[in-house]
Structure formats: C-alpha cells, structure tokens
From TrEMBL:
Keyword Repeat applies: no
Annotated segments matching region Disordered: 175-196
CDD domains, sorted: YcnI_like
Signal peptide from the UniProt entry: 1-26
Domain YncI copper-binding: 27-171
Organism, scientific name: Actinomadura rayongensis
Protein name according to UniProt: DUF1775 domain-containing protein
Biased composition (Low complexity): 175-186
InterPro entries per record: YcnI-copper_dom, YcnI-like_sf
Highest taxon of source: Bacteria
Keywords, alphabetical: Membrane, Signal, Transmembrane, Transmembrane helix
Transmembrane segments: 199-220
Length: 226
C-alpha cells in the first residue's frame, strides 16, 4: 500500500476516535428508573462532571408542581449543604384528603464540588408519589466554576434523545418497581454500559491507529535505507 494511502487511513481513523467524545458524554440522571405509584421512594440524582477544566459547584433539582410531592427529605452529603424550598401551586390539589396550596418546589445543593473525572450522588426521599401519571420529570441545573450553567430540562424520549434530557422516573403499579438496592446496571447507570462499550471501542481504534502509524514509520525507514 502506498505511504500516502496508509497515512490517509491513519488520519481518518484518528478523526473517528476524536468523534467518540460527544457521543460518550454522561447525563444527570435519577436512579432507580422506576417507583411505585402512591408509595415512598429514595431517588439518587447522579451528577457527573462533564468538563475537563471546571468543577461542578451547585445542583438545583426542580420538583414537579403539576403532580406535587408533599414529603421531601435529603440525605446529608459530606461537604454539601441542601436546601428544600416550597412554592405556591398553580392550583390547589388534594393529597391524601388534604388540600394543598403549596408544596416543595426545588432542592439546591451548594458548598461542595465535583472535580473533573468524578461524579456525586444526591439522595432524596420522596412521597407519596402521585397515582394519576406514569412519569415524573425533575428538570435540573448544574453550575460549574466560572459560572457556566447546564440545564437538564428537555423531555426525554421520542425518536431522538435530546442533548440535555431531564432526569425522570417512571411510575408503575404497586410492587412493580425495581428496588433501589437491586437495581440492575441498565436501570441505574443510564447508559454507562453503552458508554463503556464506546470507550473500549475507541481504545481499540486508538491501538489500531498506533499500529498503522508504526507501520508507516517502518515502511518509510526501509524505503529510505533502500
């Protein structure tokens, strides 16, 4: 194979490797993926740092106001301070026989940081969960040092997954949800297995590129000596 053609193949392979980066990015997710309607559950909001040059220093999770949740408590996270705030509801709702005009609306974590290459989980106990919907969305805002704010607020699902999907939990009949402690990797990692596969494939491609480069170098040296 001519040296020029080999060099072209190596260059195209390198471009392919670089193109793997955006596809393997992680999202802010809610785990486990399912919870029982009408019950109480613990949800872990998993927050990865997607920047190489900044740390995550704030997380805001918005609780559903169209299907309000009356009981919200947070598990302490070392280094972080959590604040739960209430807000007036768009219209009063009746939950377990009590009419509500306001409900918890946001949870804000500040004070800590998630450095590049790391993630953190923020646990919240919620309930009772609504019985008149099949999914809850938790739009979130992730703030980095330097002031950048990434909004995870797009509705997931559809033909193409949005770039910044909101964390979501599917509500199922009592007894059908996956227990948090028994959550499978596909339930709890939100594509981590898929991302790992992409990463391993990328590493293999890198190895191939290096091999091609070594061959080019050896071929060039042999021709120069000839």
């Amino acid at each position: 194979m001519p040296v020029r053609r080999i060099t072209l193949v190596a260059g195209l392979a390198a471009v392919a490797v670089l193109g793997l980066g955006p596809a393997a990015s992680a999202h802010v997710t809610a785990n486990p993926r399912t919870a029982d309607k009408g019950g109480y559950t613990k949800i872990s909001f998993r927050v990865p740092n997607e920047r190489d040059d900044a740390s995550t220093v704030k997380l805001v999770v918005h609780l559903p106001q169209d299907h309000p949740i009356t009981s919200v408590s947070v598990r302490p996270v070392p280094g972080w301070t959590a604040k739960v705030e209430e807000a007036p509801l768009p219209k009063p709702v009746t939950v377990e026989g009590t009419q509500l005009t306001k409900a918890p609306s946001t949870i804000t974590w500040t004070g800590g940081k998630i450095d590049p290459g790391q993630f953190e989980e923020f646990d919240v106990s919620l309930g009772p969960l609504p019985t008149d919907t099949d999914r809850l969305l938790f739009p979130s805002e992730q703030t980095y040092t330097g002031g950048e704010v990434v909004k995870w607020d797009q509705t997931p699902g559809g033909a193409a997954e949005p770039e910044h999907p909101a964390p979501s939990v599917t509500l199922v009949a009592q007894g059908s949800a996956t227990p948090a402690a028994a959550a499978t990797p596909s339930d709890s990692d939100d594509g981590t297995d898929d991302d790992t596969a992409r990463l391993l494939g990328g590493l293999g491609l890198v190895a191939g590129v290096l091999g091609v480069g070594t061959g080019v170098f050896a071929l060039t040296r042999s021709r120069s000596r000839a």
